[in-house]
Amino acid sequence: QVQLVESGGGLVQPGGSLRLSCAASGTIFSIYNMGWYRQPPGKQRELVAIINDGVTHYADSVKGRFTASRDNAKNTVDLRMDSLKPEDTAVYYCYAVVKTDYMRGPSAYWGQGTQVTVSS
Is 86 strand, coil or helix? Predict the structure, then answer.
């Protein structure tokens, strides 16, 4: 019903920058929360940044370095990552809470994930 497709991951040196993008498509009536999670190797998935009603919440570990932005008209969310550190290495997942029909409650959807590796 709803697909989230990420792009933009890759290998970058410490201190470098990357930009991730995510586009939602399918049967979309409205999108509530939209943002990014990540799963470092051997660890649990964790919140990176989430946007709802124009307010962005960031994990403490990325504040001041990452910037999330959302285009409600295009159903997209981007993540600009600057001053990357090796500990930012993870699979990054796009996340959205979507209402597919005005009669139904919202459901959570995940992208397939994109690898970000920060290494020299």
Answer: helix
- Cα–Cα distance, 67 to 48 (Å, whole number): 10
Q: How far apart are CA 18 and CA 84, in angstroms?
A: 8
User: Cβ(81)–Cβ(90) under 8 Å?
Assistant: no
Residue 72 neighbours by CB under 8 Å, 6+ apart: 31
Q: Which residues of 95-115 are buried (b: 16+ CB within 10 A; e: fewer)?
A: bbbbbbeeeeeeeebebebbe
pLDDT digits (tens, 9 = 90+) for 44-92: 999 999 999 889 999 999 999 999 999 999 999 999 999 999 999 999 9
